[in-house]
Structure to design on (1002 residues):
């Protein structure tokens, strides 16, 4: 098999750069576990939703004819063909061949713009173009299957039966046609649609285009299967990028697809299209009777890390210079931890500041560093922890009469982590390193992971090519993550809808988070990385308002940030029973950019007015930071 | 094959040219201009008024609107746009109409092109009466002036528009002071859509720091893209410009897209007909050589560089009916002290006579 220079650089949906066989080797089948055999038979509309880069298109690509043919042909050759096994269990493969093939249709702007060409906006042209594309996708798929000898050849002269007259079919489906004839006609109609869309005001509609009152193609294909049962695989409609249609088109198509149940229908969309109330089900979870929604973003941290480990191993195996790291363990070992000591010269001035402050806060006057050219990091870490505890003790309002009876300040894991963060900041030591930091930085998005990991791999490849050890020091890992984080942050404004307000908000929020996190007593250890809103606040924000109102900015910006994975949501309970809050956490790459901890937990409530202000203009951190206090939380969702 | 504009008319002596034209008997001109925050939208009109009589000159305006009026940058730009509109109307020039052109629809999809073409089409009978129609693209986004010029060119071929001119007031300093953001998805520009599924040769005309847009456009066409030939400006001012553009985009070009350095094409930044000829030549070459091997082939253009280079690419797209893929910015930000830059820059508009008398053999 052909190897790649850096397999982490490839996105699975990149077709021309990645042939089918490489795609299949790189594909991690974890998402297949989300499917059920019923998704191929039960007449429910299956909707895959996710943020950009969550793997929707790659997932659909797995079911395209060329992928399935390649899998089928290689099935016998590979004993560790996990994907084929999964597909067998799902019933996609049978003993005799393929039972299903995907008809991949991208909802591109050609479909969307048909809305503008129709005076009445009744979506009749949309039906026509979609019908034509569905038919063409299936006919082309059959040609591929015939070429692979998975179905009988000689397709051109095959007769395709018309739909029964009682269905009042469109002319395209109303009479018997030869396979080649239908293929040519659909190709011409599709080309004429482009002529229509490229036309100027007043140009006539090409004659070949007949508006369809509804979608006929699915019923038509199901009808054909009755006559070719056993030879032809059943189609599965795969509609990708559904978000690129207008809302009324989406509603129309969704209704059409719910009614036309002849073949399985899957839709993939970015969450951008959702309003806030859909992203955060304010009225309780709606379990669709006719729709099954699969959220590709909702894996918990542990299972996502396993998924990333699988992705990493597959990519390493296909990267020429890194093939020797064929297990996740050997990759982890190449990501070195920091050394246990630092040169005294490098830290002596700053450590004196810590000691002085400890003495001020009642520590022993004899506190000094032990002799030697090297200082143990563990010692510096202990000092940092003591300083936090001493600062906490100092701000307690009611001192004990007898100091010797005063209990020691309690420490916990969170305080330990805050001390580690302070230590790194004070002495300029690496904080973000190790595979765990890498996987957390991905923020449950595989494309974000590949973006970051590709830079790790690049450095390792470079070293391997120079015949040097491929190890990455903790400082190098820290710097690579910081570079990725900076890149992510600087692209925020350009890359997302509502990017300006998202960037403005993130900047303000991060300023507040830092102000609280970096207080000497670490009041919300290990730090604040999010904000919380109550259900009532979110319901208030749904109030109808004018196009220029702040509430609209709030709704649209927050929805775009959540849909784009800039913010992730966690539902928590706080205080009285039933007092539910939605906590919005910053993307972990943003935490890295702003020197915040990677753990979840610390958050603060904010008012709508404050948030709107933070979205539209810079706000000084001091205004807000002082008011922020620790929030006790009881998570509803496992982290 | 003969090119439509193998002989062409281009001059940077804008005032002298129009002084002569407007001194002819019965000469009149309608200037179509995009009225937004960019002060260049007034340059050509001011110069026309300086050399012609008020009654000879009319204006048809596009007043651009965005969906982001609440935001500070959009509000600021709107104020500048209003000031430019008042300045134009204040000249006393005959106002044929000012159309409100919404650059994005309610779903934030790009809509400026179709809206502008519809508006111009609604005024076509009025335009028919002028001897000269001039489109000033200086303050227009590409998604607007591409379909507008294409439409007017088509109507000129039908004899409805007598003489079609384009004017560009180009200034690298002003371009640098305008920062683009909130890029949407890549899409084909209105009236320059891909007409059928075929293999693609992609010619991105590249400017500085364009990684995001390059990636977005590539994502749109990657399924069928078989060759990428980036176009850089050279000769250009400064002469180092192509090096700078390459350095700023090196990661995306050489690592992400694995461009072969020999595929890079250099085109004169100051003469749009240079890039026009080269794109047409390249398109003909690739279709001739590759069609036999891979079936249908066409060339996709992406104008991400200066207005003049974009204009040349447009001429090629009109001539060979090439698809144009582009990413429009949703928001423009002005750099600090941008207005000082605007005030301090001396701009010499470039005049291009696109259709009409010189090409008909009449004078």
């Amino acid at each position: 098999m052909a190897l790649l220079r850096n397999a982490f650089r490839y996105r699975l949906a990149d077709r021309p750069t990645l042939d089918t066989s490489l795609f299949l080797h790189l594909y991690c089948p974890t998402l297949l576990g989300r499917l059920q055999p019923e998704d191929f038979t039960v007449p429910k509309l299956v909707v895959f939703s996710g943020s950009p880069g969550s793997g929707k298109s790659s997932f659909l690509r797995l079911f395209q004819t060329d992928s399935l043919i390649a899998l089928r042909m290689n099935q016998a050759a590979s004993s560790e063909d996990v994907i084929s096994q999964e597909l067998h269990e799902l019933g996609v493969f049978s003993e005799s061949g393929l039972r299903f093939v995907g008809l991949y249709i991208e909802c591109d702007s050609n479909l969307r713009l048909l809305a503008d060409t129709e005076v009445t906006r009744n979506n009749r042209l949309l039906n026509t173009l979609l019908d034509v594309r569905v038919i063409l996708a299936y006919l082309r798929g059959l040609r591929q299957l015939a070429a692979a000898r998975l179905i009988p050849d000689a397709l051109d002269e095959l007769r395709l039966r018309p739909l029964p007259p009682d269905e009042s079919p469109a002319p395209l489906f109303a009479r018997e046609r030869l396979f080649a004839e239908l293929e040519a006609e659909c190709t011409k109609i599709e080309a004429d649609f482009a002529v229509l869309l490229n036309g100027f005001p007043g140009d006539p509609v090409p004659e070949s285009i007949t508006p369809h009152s509804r979608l006929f193609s699915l019923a038509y294909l199901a009808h054909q299967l009755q006559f070719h049962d056993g030879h032809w695989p059943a189609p599965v409609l795969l509609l990708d990028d559904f978000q690129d249609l207008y809302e009324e088109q989406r509603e129309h198509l969704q209704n059409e697809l719910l009614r036309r149940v002849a073949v399985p229908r899957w839709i993939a969309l970015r969450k951008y299209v959702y309003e806030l109330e859909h992203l955060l089900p304010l009225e309780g979870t709606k379990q669709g009777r006719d729709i099954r929604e699969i959220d590709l973003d909702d894996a918990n941290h542990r299972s996502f890390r396993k998924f990333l480990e699988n992705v990493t191993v597959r990519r390493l195996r296909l990267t020429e210079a890194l093939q020797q790291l064929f297990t996740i363990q050997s990759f982890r070992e190449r990501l070195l931890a920091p050394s246990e000591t630092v040169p005294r010269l490098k830290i002596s001035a700053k450590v004196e500041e810590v000691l002085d402050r400890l003495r001020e806060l009642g520590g022993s006057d004899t506190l000094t560093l032990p002799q030697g050219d090297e200082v143990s990091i563990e010692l510096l870490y202990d000092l940092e922890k003591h300083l936090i505890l001493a600062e906490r003790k100092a701000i307690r309002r009611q001192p004990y009469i007898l100091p010797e009876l005063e209990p020691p300040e309690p420490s916990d894991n969170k305080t330990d982590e805050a001390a580690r963060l302070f230590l790194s900041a004070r002495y300029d030591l690496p904080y973000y390193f190790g595979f765990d930091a890498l996987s957390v930085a991905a923020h449950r998005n595989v494309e974000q992971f590949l973006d970051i990991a590709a830079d790790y791999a690049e450095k390792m490849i470079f070293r391997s090519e120079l015949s040097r050890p491929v190890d990455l020091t903790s400082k190098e890992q820290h710097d690579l993550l910081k570079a990725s984080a900076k890149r992510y942050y600087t692209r925020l404004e350009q890359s997302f809808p509502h990017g300006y307000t998202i960037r403005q908000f993130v900047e303000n929020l991060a300023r507040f988070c830092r102000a609280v996190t970096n207080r000497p007593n670490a009041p919300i250890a290990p730090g604040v990385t999010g904000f919380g809103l109550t259900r009532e606040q979110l319901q208030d924000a749904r109030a109808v308002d004018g196009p220029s109102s702040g509430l609209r900015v709030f709704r649209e910006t927050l929805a775009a940030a959540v849909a784009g994975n800039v913010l992730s949501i966690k539902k928590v309970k706080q205080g009285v029973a039933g007092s539910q809050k939605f906590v919005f956490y910053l993307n972990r790459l943003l935490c890295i950019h702003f020197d915040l901890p990677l753990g979840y937990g610390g958050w603060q409530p904010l008012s709508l007015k404050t948030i709107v202000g933070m979205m539209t203009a810079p706000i000084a951190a001091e205004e807000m930071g002082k008011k922020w206090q620790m929030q006790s939380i009881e998570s509803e969702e496992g982290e | 094959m003969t090119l439509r504009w193998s002989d062409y008319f281009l001059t940077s002596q804008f005032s002298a040219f129009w002084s002569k034209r407007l001194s002819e008997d019965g000469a009149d001109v309608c200037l179509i201009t995009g009225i937004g925050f960019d002060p260049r939208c007034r340059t050509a009109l001011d110069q026309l008024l300086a050399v012609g009589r008020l009654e000879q000159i009319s204006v048809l305006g596009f007043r651009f609107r965005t969906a982001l009026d609440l935001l500070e940058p959009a509000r600021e730009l709107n104020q500048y746009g209003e000031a430019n509109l008042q300045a134009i109307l204040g000249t006393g020039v005959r106002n044929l109409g000012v159309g409100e052109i919404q650059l994005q629809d309610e779903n934030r999809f790009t809509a400026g092109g179709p809206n502008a073409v519809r508006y111009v089409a609604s005024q076509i009978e009025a335009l028919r009466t002028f001897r000269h129609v001039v489109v000033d693209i200086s303050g227009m986004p590409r998604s607007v002036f591409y379909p507008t010029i294409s439409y007017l060119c088509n109507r000129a071929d039908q004899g409805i528009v007598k003489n079609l001119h384009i004017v560009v007031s180009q200034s690298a300093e002003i371009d640098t002071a305008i920062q683009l953001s909130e890029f949407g998805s890549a899409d084909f520009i209105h009236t320059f859509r891909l007409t059928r599924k075929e293999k693609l040769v992609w010619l991105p005309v590249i400017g500085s720091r364009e990684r995001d847009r390059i990636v977005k456009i590539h994502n749109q066409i990657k399924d069928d893209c078989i060759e990428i030939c980036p176009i850089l400006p050279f000769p250009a001012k400064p002469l180092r410009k192509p090096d700078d553009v390459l350095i700023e985009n090196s990661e995306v070009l050489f690592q992400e897209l694995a461009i072969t350095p020999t595929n890079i094409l250099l085109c004169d930044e100051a003469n749009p007909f240079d890039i026009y000829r080269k794109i047409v030549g390249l398109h003909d070459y690739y279709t001739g050589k590759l069609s036999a091997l891979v079936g249908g082939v066409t060339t996709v253009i992406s104008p991400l560089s200066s207005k003049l280079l974009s204009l040349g690419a447009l001429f090629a797209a009109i001539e060979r009916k090439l698809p144009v893929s582009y990413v429009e910015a949703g928001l423009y930000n002005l750099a600090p002290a941008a207005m000082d830059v605007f005030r301090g820059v001396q701009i010499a508009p470039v005049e291009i006579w696109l259709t009409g008398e010189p090409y008909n053999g009449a004078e």
